[in-house]
Model the fold of this input.
Amino acid sequence: MSTVANIELNDGRAIPQLGFGVWQVENDEATKVVGIALETGFRHIDTAKVYENETGVGKALAASSVNREDIWLTTKIWNDDQGYDEALAAFEKSLADLGVDYVDLLLIHWVSAHRKKYVDTWKALIELQKQGKARSIGVSNFPEEHLREIIEATGVTPVVNQIELHPYFNQQALRTVNDELGIKTEAWSPLGQGGELLQDPTITEIAQAHDATPAQVVIAWHLAHGIIVFPKSVTPERIKSNFAATEVKLSDEEIARIDGLSREDGRIGPDPKTADF
Ligand code: NAD
Done:
């Protein structure tokens, strides 16, 4: 039996540490795979307006026998919707598309610093939390400097910072900053998007030793570090085996070996410090 731990956030709420991501999944498929994920036992779904599948995700929630209050639902404010009024309006659209009256977690998707709107956007999220429509609020793709700026401007610390993080790019420095600020780290592309990482000899060797899959070993590594993680898959067997990764317990030595795989050029996606979209 897979048992997913809860991670306590700085606002007193608790998030299931292992969830299910749906980037690059179209609406119809999202309805199907989120349904399978909920049946498998996942209770945490990570979507975003820009994924253009909030409608499909919402249909799966509505069709599921799992109660809404037992599911942790995250969505995000896209860059074009930054600004106080813009973010409030965009969020209403997300709620309508999802067919829900609140989300568990609302994130600013990217700092998009060149727009100079992230402080106003953060103020909108604070207002939405006051209204009870976003029960917890956080950010994604925020460097240290911008984390400190929104906290200083408002006195409200994000509950999470969702960042690219996998064994080839383990973000030790930013994880330490998040820890110091009382912000939990969420990993995006936790499996390195299923590329070279899952064939890495260190990963496959440890997988063999545990009679586990490489993906399970990588997920177990995130879990061992207290990182919140939501691997994406549209393949039912993989959805199930990814969920079962909670059963894989790595030794300190194995964790250290995987820590050693990180490299300067391991980033797959854009660098939030230079991204201009
Ligand atoms: P991921 O690292 O979760 O990799 C997903 C891919 O890995 C799949 O498409 C598949 O090819 C492969 N895979 C999955 N399970 C496997 C298994 N058991 N065996 C072999 N291969 C397997 O990549 P991701 O989708 O980029 O990241 C996960 C989630 O993070 C997204 O769905 C989304 O919710 C979130 N995300 C957020 C941001 C952001 O900017 N905040 C950016 C990217 C992703």
Summary: The chain has one domain: 6-259.
